[in-house]
Amino acid sequence: MSSIVREKFSSLIVVLMLLLAGAEGRAGMMSPCEDPTVLSGAKVQVFIFPYESDKALTAHGQALATVMQRHVLFSALKYQSIGVAELTEAHGSCNYERVTGRVRAQLRTGQIAIFLSGRVFEQENNIYLKSRVSVATDAEQALLSWALAPQPPATITTSVPLDMAAFAPRTIPLDFLARLESSQQQARKVHSRPDANAPFEELPAGPSERYTFLVLDARNDWMHIRVLPFGIEGWVPAHALATGQELKGEFPELHFVDALVGYFSLTRGAAGQTRLLGLTEQSLSRYLQETESKAESDPRALALMLMGNARLRAAVGAWTTPLLQAARDDYRRATMASPGWTPAQSHLLACTALLCVRGACQNVDTRALETRYLEAIARDPTSRELIDSLSAYYEAAALGRVATDRSPEALADQRSKLRDIQASMPPR
User: Is the dihedral of CA 394, 396, 397, 399 positive or negative?
Assistant: First the structure.
């Protein structure tokens, strides 16, 4: 069977297997950057790039990607419908923009792709790793709507930023780097039983290799896999380098990636998501705990914002006032973590506005909301989201849904000025 036919056959078989498995499908992949595989049966898929590095560290960067891929997949087994791909590079093929563009072109409605990339670099005799995470999906997956008035409608829309800020550099111990190559070799051994001393077969290696393994079972730190199209079946170690918690201690962004898988696995309005919400909140909490003393204010603010959003995404039916108050506490903490970060301000203002419509502002005077909006816009005058949000607030005020000190004439004048500003801005 030619390599091209084999690759297409492998992708087809995996798609069929995931479709047959329904929402329970989990798969790992080795996928070349020039032709990344997107599984149609996986709702959330994580793509891990080779870590860029100086020439002396290139092999370590590739090995780190392998270890990360195995760890992320093992951690994600608690979620449903998940795929984790390790991207492999040949002749500079792993250009970030090119690869993510190819993945985006293959995504179906409702699918989510999470990209983990980074760079290993040396500075003053120290070795660091700096990671970044971004998400690709359709717009609906990133939005929340806050209905201030039904007829005529006055609705605020807030969004989760999909191109997320980079994490702070992590100092990599020299012995950690030294273990990467041997750990990668261990991660590619498929044993006949979950025992490092058991007979094994080697997974294919090389920048052009493509294969997929379905996860059939998990036991302690081992995964039972079936490798397609090679017909290999057996057990692989999930954490060849270290235990899961030790690895996440070195790289707390793995908690963040784990939380993103859980967050985007939540289906708004669906029943029975209490366990999934708990797993998402647990991963976000662990990330926040591990980074408490680190200089990464925007990612920490995003984690807190996702905490509030996750509560709302997991809710069945209309959002209750206590639920909104709990989410607002998360948004308030997010603004404290990064005071000038617009998405946190936008969510806090939207949630507060909806609580004010319900007469549940507590210590917030509804008349102060306009001032808070104007202050946020002064910090980020190009934010179409804040401008549109203030416009919805004015519409609600004109309908008598929130209190205002402005006369009807003054309010109409403000709304007219704001519409002129909106007309001059590019669409969201």
Answer: positive
Q: Which residues pair with 155 in a beta bridge?
A: 147
**Beta strand pairing call for 189-191 and 170-171:** unpaired
Q: CA-to-CA distance for 42 and 19, rounded, in angstroms?
A: 9
- At position 314, the amino acid (one-letter code) is A
**H helices of 57-142, where?**
58-75, 96-106
Q: Cis link prior to 229 (omega < 30° from 0)? A: yes
Backbone angles phi, psi at 425, to 5 degrees: -100, 150
Token representation of residue 76? 């994600």
Please count the residues of the chain: 428
Contacts of 155 (CB under 8 A, 6+ apart): 145, 146, 147, 148, 392
Cα(252)–Cα(245) distance, integer angstroms: 9
Strands 112-123 and 44-48: parallel
Q: Using CA of residue 298, residue 299, residue 304, residue 307, what is the dihedral sign?
A: positive
Residue type, 329: D
Residues 6+ apart with CB under 8 A from 210: 7, 10, 29, 30, 31, 32, 35, 37
Please name which of 316, 314, 317, 313 lies closest in space to residue 347, comparing C-alpha atoms: 313
Render pLDDT for 134-193 as a digit per residue (tens, 0 to 9): 999 998 899 999 999 988 889 999 999 998 878 988 887 766 666 666 776 787 789 999
Domain boundaries, the chain: 1-142+164-244
pLDDT band of 354, cuts 50, 70, 90: very high
State whether residue 198 is helix, strand or coil: coil
Which 8-state DSSP code applies to residue 9?
H
Tell me which H or E stretch contains 221: none
Q: Angle, to 10 degrees, between the axis of helix 58-75 and the axis of helix 174-187?
A: 60
308 contacts 347 by C-beta, under 8 angstroms: yes
The C-alpha atoms of residue 143 and residue 160 are separated, in whole angstroms, by 7
- Give pLDDT tens digits for 194-230: 998 999 998 877 666 777 878 888 888 788 888 887 7
What pLDDT is recorded for position 248?
Answer: 55
Cα angle value 166/427/154 (rounded, 5°): 105
Contact between 37 and 15 under an 8 Å Cβ cutoff? The reply is no
